TrEMBL record:
CDD domains: HTH_ARSR. This is DNA-binding transcriptional ArsR family regulator. It comes from Kribbella antiqua. Keywords: DNA-binding, Transcription, Transcription regulation. GO terms for molecular function: DNA binding; DNA-binding transcription factor activity. Gene3D superfamilies: Winged helix-like DNA-binding domain superfamily/Winged helix DNA-binding domain. InterPro entries: ArsR-like_HTH, HTH_ArsR_DNA-bd_dom, HTH_MetalResp_TranReg, WH-like_DNA-bd_sf, WH_DNA-bd_sf. PANTHER family: TRANSCRIPTIONAL REGULATOR, ARSR FAMILY, TRANSCRIPTIONAL REPRESSOR SDPR. Residues 1-98 form the HTH arsR-type domain. NCBIfam families: HTH_metalloreg (NF033788). It comes from the Bacteria. PROSITE patterns: HTH_ARSR_2.
Amino acid sequence: MVDDQVDRFFEVLADPTRRQVVRLLGEGPRRAGQLAAATGSSSPAMSRHLRILLSAGLVADERVPDDARVRIFRLNPEPVVAVQAWLDQVQAHWRDNLGSFKKHVEQRESS
């Protein structure tokens, strides 16, 4: 399950516009129109990007109580936490392997 989340995370963020949207939402919630203007995208293109980000769980949306037509988008931290956990595992694996390699080299040098 975690691997599926990680795969989907990287698949979705392969697109530079979606990475830019995630960066912008990292600064705070925004409306779709604000995101479109900030990325230089058309409204229909931004809608497609947001739909993909929503389906992947990277972004959440909420309706404004006074105007049901307005949606505010915000970053959802859960997928980022899953990717960070995966990266921590990869880093630990490489740290262990490199430590073993260093130990091996040092032993050969002292022989």
